[in-house]
C-alpha cells in the first residue's frame, strides 16, 4: 500500500468513527424528528467512510465495489447534507451579520471542496495521484 493511499484510508476510517460518534451524540440529544434525521444522515456517512477506510472491497447489492467509490459516496452524502443543514441555518440568522456571512461561506465553499474530492475518489484520481486510489 502506498503512503498516500494509507493516509487517505486512515483518514476515511478516522472520519467515519468520528462521524458515527457524532451521530450517537445526536441520538442521545433527544427524540425530535429533526435530530433523528441528522443522526441518520451522519450514521450513513460515518458507516460508508469507515467501510471505505477499513475494507478494500465492499459488497453492495451482490457486487463488490472498491473502497474509493464507497468513500466517494460517503463524502457526496456528507456534502449534500452539509448544504441542506447550512441552508436551514441561514434562515435562523440575521441577514448580513458576521455569523450569517460565515455560514454562507461555509455552505458554499466546503461542499464544493467535498464534491471535488468525491469526484476524485470516484474517478480514481484525475488530478491527484492514481496510486492513492488503487484497489488491490
Automatic annotation (TrEMBL):
Read off the Pfam families from this record. DUF7994
Q: Which UniProt keywords apply?
A: Membrane, Transmembrane, Transmembrane helix
Membrane spanning residue stretches: 12-30, 36-54, 66-87, 99-119
Q: Is the keyword Ubl conjugation assigned to this protein? A: no
InterPro entries found in the cross-reference section? DUF7994
This protein is called: Sterol desaturase
Q: Which organism is it from?
A: Natrinema ejinorense
Query: Which lineage do the record's taxonomy fields give for this organism?
Result: Archaea, Methanobacteriati, Methanobacteriota, Stenosarchaea group, Halobacteria
Amino acid at each position: 500500500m502506498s503512503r498516500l493511499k494509507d493516509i487517505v484510508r486512515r483518514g476515511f476510517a478516522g472520519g467515519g468513527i468520528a462521524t458515527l460518534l457524532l451521530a450517537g451524540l445526536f441520538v442521545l440529544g433527544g427524540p425530535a424528528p429533526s435530530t433523528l434525521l441528522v443522526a441518520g444522515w451522519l450514521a450513513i456517512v460515518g458507516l460508508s467512510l469507515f467501510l471505505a477506510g477499513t475494507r478494500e472491497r465492499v459488497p453492495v447489492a451482490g457486487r463488490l465495489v472498491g473502497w474509493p467509490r464507497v468513500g466517494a459516496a460517503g463524502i457526496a452524502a456528507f456534502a449534500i447534507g452539509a448544504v441542506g443543514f447550512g441552508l436551514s441555518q441561514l434562515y435562523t440568522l440575521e441577514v448580513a451579520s458576521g455569523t450569517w456571512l460565515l455560514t454562507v461561506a461555509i455552505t458554499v465553499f466546503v461542499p464544493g471542496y467535498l464534491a471535488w474530492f468525491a469526484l476524485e475518489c470516484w474517478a480514481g484520481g484525475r488530478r491527484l495521484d492514481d496510486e492513492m486510489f488503487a484497489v488491490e
